[in-house]
Design goal:
alpha/beta, Immunoglobulin-like, 8 strands, globular
Length: 146
């Protein structure tokens, strides 16, 4: 009985620090995980994508944050955000972005993912009057201004 107690105590003591360090390594600020967008000069309609939906879009620490949902949960899925240098001359200026999902996952669970994309390409617009960023094909947009 005493040996079982000591083994349990030993395992608990050994596992406790490893759990703490795991928790600390998963904590990242959005700036550190903000991915680059991909430049594209062809029409967005020519880019193939798997089905997804977007719950919300907002800006956090100069990153575009997108909450996306898709079917999966047991395989590979990746998102890319495309932008172009085509900006509509309006007040404020507007541009379209295109979010692409490549889903190699045939499971059917609903996966919700928080995506971060670097907005530095639009900093000149943001520092002036701002710019409206619209997700092409979706009724989602956000105003970016510093």
């Amino acid at each position: 009985m005493m040996l079982k107690y000591l083994v349990t105590l030993f395992i608990s003591i050994v596992m406790l620090p490893s759990c703490k360090s795991l928790k600390e390594t998963n904590v990242e600020s959005p700036v550190n995980i903000c991915e680059s967008m991909t430049f594209n000069n062809t029409p967005f309609s020519e880019i193939e994508t798997d089905y997804y939906s977007v719950d919300s879009v907002y800006i956090e620490n100069n990153c575009l944050v997108i909450w996306a949902n898709y079917g999966g949960g047991c395989g590979d899925a990746s998102f890319k955000l495309y932008y172009s240098d085509k900006v509509m001359e309006s007040s404020p200026p507007k541009t379209n972005l295109f979010l692409q999902l490549k889903d190699q996952d045939h499971c059917r669970a609903i996966v919700q993912q928080k995506l971060y994309f670097n907005l530095s390409f639009f900093d000149n617009y943001a520092n002036e009057d701002g710019i409206t960023l619209r997700l092409s094909g979706l009724d989602k947009s956000v105003f970016y201004r510093n």
